[in-house]
Amino acid sequence: MEGIEHKMISVNGITMHVAEKGQGPLVLFIHGFPELWYSWRHQIVYLAAHGYRAVAPDLRGYGDTTGAPTSPAQYTTLHLVGDIVALLDAIAPEQDKVFVVGHDWGAIIAWYLCLYRPDRVKALVNLSVAFIPRNPTMKPLERFRAFYGDDYYMCRFQEPGDIEAEFAKVGVKGVIKKFLTYRTAGPLYFPKGEGFRGSYDCPITLPSWLSEEDVDYYASKFEQSGFTGGVNYYRMSDLNWELNAPWTSVQVKVPVKFIVGDSDLTYHMPGTKDYIHNGGFQKDVPLLQEVVVMEDTAHFIQQEKPNEINKQIYDFIQKF
Predict the structure, then answer these.
(1) What CATH code is carried by the domain that includes residue 291?
(2) Residue 201 annotated among the catalytic residues of the structure
(3) Is 234 assigned a catalytic role?
(4) How many domains does the chain have?
(5) Is 233 one of the catalytic residues?
(6) Which residue out of 38, 234, 267, 275 is catalytically annotated?
(7) For the chain (length 320 residues), average pLDDT per consecutive 10?
(8) Which of 31, 79, 103, 299 is catalytic?
């Protein structure tokens, strides 16, 4: 991680921790759950070496970012995109548009950034989570419960303090290991009182792409911040649905490349493959230029296959 600079920047009522390296056009990396700027460590170094200024913040409620409110209601997509726009205003006032790369919740934030403020995005590379058009007839949690039942992770994340208590039984390091090494393509369940995948004590062998030092870094930050900030994003699913009513049927009109692993649980959600490959995705994202499905790759794609992802990002953004 040599040469990566760390800064604290006041944005939108919080103080955001930012890691950055390099000079040139700005590439903003937006992380997911349960992650940090650190999830982009390989991409930061690579893009900086190829003529770009790579910037990766710890999002609201995560890592070394401070001042995040405790109320879940202040973790809507409007708040999260507001943080990103304020960050861009602070660190790159001379650049009207920047490149954006998102993963997991970071991909969702990036989609909403493109809906709310397409004037700020030159091109987007999103990983793992495809665009999800708003269904005006059904709230997200209704849909998840109908498909998966109350033990589905997004449903279990709703009650304040509930999943945090489950995580406390596993321990911060155990939670990090279990999430980052999760490779089951099917839905993720948290049966009440049974822990992650029904076991608290199942030993985990780390894959080659994830070291004990990596886990220790994540764990040190989540021990400091807790998981509530990140879980609050999920708690706003239905409120986001309400607030985003004005953007129903609005298309994402920035150039996009989408990359997903063939073993990613998000790729196997009902209807997702059909949406991605049979015209729905292209209709909602008319400037979608490429969809890449990476073989034998799970959810944490930029860490699992860093060399391939680095090249995919670079090959796309250097066109603009």
Answers:
(1) 3.40.50.1820
(2) no
(3) yes
(4) 1
(5) no
(6) 234
(7) 93 98 98 98 98 98 96 97 98 97 98 98 98 96 94 94 92 94 90 68 88 98 97 98 98 98 96 97 98 98 98 98
(8) 299
